Amino acid sequence: MIKLVSFVLCPYVQRAVIALREKSVEYEVAYIDLAHPPEWFQAISPLGKVPLLEVEDQVLFESSVIIDYLDEVFQPRLHPMDPLRRAQHKAWIEFGSGLLVDQMELVLAKDEAAFHERQAHLERQLKLLLAPLEAGVLDGDGVFSLLDAAYAPLFMRQELLTEIRVELAGLQPQPLQSWSDRLLARPSVKGSLVDDFRERYIAFFSAKGSWLMQQTGI
């Protein structure tokens, strides 16, 4: 049995969940409170972060490593077979990891000035996806890839944020929005979160003093 260790809002473990669902592999997720991690977690996580993957009494960490391992072990393969295209996808997956940090920092902004500064930064970073996307590097053949699994969590949260504050809809140019729409329609993506994710997400960042959440009155 594949076991993932996660925090309930973690977008990085969601990448692995989507990949596992695409491959029809049975798995379980153990959620922990990162603010008060259990001793057993601290003993097996060298970085003190999630996700972790437990398999055959061994532990893997870092989401990009975990999804690479899952793709090598379970069919169908989601990475491109061409070495150059596969390397490109891995590079843009790393870029996507940074985008998730940028997105989180936007939500964590404590005042309006910081919010708009981080909004502008995230918008600039998202626009860097346009050239490789339009060149077919990211979404050229229409076949679901590991890169898609890596970006779906970003797009899911962006959709939620747009529901909370309409002006954020403009962060994603139309080519990105079309890509997002395709990914969010997939059953593997729809089923990759806990049922009450929206409520948990809003409550978590509200408790962190998010200016965005305060302005919505939530």
From TrEMBL:
It comes from the Bacteria. Residues 82-202 form the GST C-terminal domain. GO terms for molecular function: transferase activity. It comes from endosymbiont of Escarpia spicata. It holds the Pfam family GST_N_3. GO terms for cellular component: cytoplasm. Gene3D superfamilies: 1.20.1050.10, Glutaredoxin. This is Glutathione S-transferase family protein. Residues 1-78 form the GST N-terminal domain.
